[in-house]
Amino acid sequence: MKILVPVKRVIDYNVKPRVKADGSGVDLANVKMSMNPFDEISVEEAIRLKEAGKAEEIVAVSVGPAKAQETLRTALAMGADRAILVQTDDEVEPLAVAKILKAIVEAEDPGLVILGKQAIDDDSNQTGQMLAALLGWGQGTFANTVEVGDGTIDVKREIDGGLQTVQLKLPAIVTTDLRLNEPRYASLPNIMKAKSKPLDQKTPADYGVDTAPRLTTSKVTEPPKREAGEILEDVDTLVAKLKEMGVA
Ligand code: AMP
Q: Please, one GO biological process term (predicted)?
């Protein structure tokens, strides 16, 4: 089985985002960018399935600027076999990404697509679900554990009340949650080896997909500043304070 793993280049999760002065978006100039953390979990899970003999090939794909090559090289250094960059400088919305992925699925014929549950830049949580709908495939979202059987995959999902297990017929779509695994670091020899692994370059037009935006961002604002806390000497003072504030 072949596994397709879409990986997005996003602002690094350790960076405190700065909003542009005109409120039109987040300022990405000179900001560290990395692979979306949920996508690292997807790459790790694909590698584990390959190591367990459940998959033969892992193809990483990214839709984004030329620099998204670095993100793909990270996936290759972790253990993906080859990569596809669908290059565009436009900001591509989830529906357009899902349409591009559908075209790649039709060309590559994978048995499984593992996406992150959400990209930490737009927090859309849409691409996996849209891809499943476009393909007419089953989806196991927010995966906590996956087990590949004979033509099926069991996905234990993280839901509000606990865990839910669904069984999907392959081919299928899985989106990863935080507790699925702990992604490995790429070793230096593997980073060197990744430089010679194949990386195809395409454009959205190669897949007949128009990436023109359908959404407009009205305004982006910083979250309100947290007010300073206060250390109280004992519980009685705390209770008195809470009463004063009208919450006790
Ligand atoms: P989102 O729906 O934007 O929250 O993204 C969910 C998942 O879809 C991500 O974790 C990625 O696996 C995939 N994805 C979204 N945008 C892209 C992109 N530009 N390139 C590759 N994968 C993407």
A: carboxylic acid catabolic process
Hey, whose CA ends up nearest to atom 7 of ligand 1?
116
Is any atom of ligand 1 closer than 6 Å to the C-beta of 116?
A: yes
**82 lies in some domain:** yes
The answer to whether the CB of 9 is under 6 A from ligand 1 is no
What does the pLDDT look like over 219-239, one tens digit per residue? 999 888 888 888 999 999 999
Read off the pTM.
Answer: 0.92
Q: Using one digit for the tens of pLDDT, what is the confidence trace for 52-84?
A: 999 999 999 999 999 999 999 999 999 999 999
Does some domain include residue 229? Answer: no
| 42 Cα: distance to centroid of ligand 1 (angstroms) | 11
For 94-163, the DSSP string reads: HHHHHHHHHHHHHHH--SEEEEES--TTT----HHHHHHHHHT-EEEEEEEEEEE-SSEEEEEEEETTEE
Is residue 221 included in any domain, yes or no? no
Minimal-distance CA residue to ligand 1 atom 16: 8
